[in-house]
Amino acid sequence: MSDFDISDVGPEGTDAAEPATLPVVAVVGRPNVGKSSLVNRIIGRREAVVEDVPGVTRDRVAYDAEWQNTRFTLVDTGGWETSVSGLAAMVARQAEYAAQTADVILFVVDATVGVTDADAAVTRVLRSTKRPVVLAANKVDGSMQEADALDLWQLGVGEPYPISALHGRGTGDLLDALVAEFPEQPRGEEEDEGEDGPPRIALLGRPNVGKSSLLNRLAGEDRVVVDSVAGTTRDAVDELIELGGKTWKFIDTAGIRRRFRALQGADYYATMRTGTALERAEVAVVLMDVSEPLAEQDIRVVEQVVEAGRGLVLAFNKWDILDEERRIYLEKEIDRQLARVSWAPRVNVSAKTGRHMERLVPAIETSLQGWNQRIPTGQLNNWLKELVAATPPPVRGGKQPKILFATQAGTRPPHFILFTTGFLEDNYRRFVERRLREDFGFEGSPVHISMRIREKKGAGAPGRASKGSVRPDRKQRRR
To answer: Cα(475)–Cα(464) distance, rounded to whole angstroms?
Structure first.
């Protein structure tokens, strides 16, 4: 482990709380008209997953945006078609829900194709929402295509603004028109509770283990698209859900795949989004499918959470279909492959039937508590003194290192620094961590232990002069 400079220890940085509910803009349109490209253009970075294949965006995903000092929330949606079934129908329902809950609708149409039957059908649904509609005529890359945009007047939703999401052409005028439609008092959804907002919980796991189904079960409605096809979720989707009298922000993520470097296109960016979602979260619920043996991907997801220093809850899905023989083998797999995270709370659930869902929130609260736990310095050092007296560090290089004192440098996750006279072996540091957990808890949270080795006064480290000493030259040494 690397040394830790105690001068670097400081309070956790927190984002400033939002001063008020922001206007919400829903970006809708049929598949592959450039909605996500336009979202990326407006927010100024490649955040929404973009690929030249219809149906890349499947859920509604919110981003913070700003134009001329006016801030608003931009909601990207999946392609909207009215006469579809299966997965496409679920995507369309998500887009329709976004339009109904928005303050302004940004309707994106491919000007090079013209008005299609799908565009006309979507327009009829948009009128029924009684929301202001701003029409973006996309893919107008030059003056030669501006005539194509004029044909979109026949949609009957107002002036079409010719733009190129790819090159940025005309987007300024579009945004001016968009901001002009903002209401004085945005409807918005529930405001975040507390100074720093609700706790953020990331739902992680390999593809198709039931993360989106779990989120929908917790919400009590179809908030995100669910399908038996692996990889349905591509973006990280934030949803505010009230459970146990408290508001939580759940983040549904794309499944983490085994070979990240081999991923291409939308899957590559989706996996990157999942990593970013984990960094934003405080606790990760890692979902595993108990109907199949634990896979390398399952273990890798758990390791990623530990490396990120986030609270951890292990959720074993599809428990309702588990037979006795599989249960025996599963317990052995868990003991063997997840022994490193035996401190993580475990819940056995069924996202399909709702079995034991009430146990998930207490497990998350336990993990949050461990993640924020702190031991007073005096109590920590009294405990450490007794521990070292009973089990001193092993001798290394003929000398026995001593632990002078310890301090907890921080929380989220808990981090302890041991000030020593010599190097402590990995086994002994693991022993200290195990005893910390036995005596103080820290359930559901990684615990980091690092060292600061203090050298004796007047003695430098091998091959290095200590502070204030003078290294003799070669002639002096020969004498």
So the answer is: 19
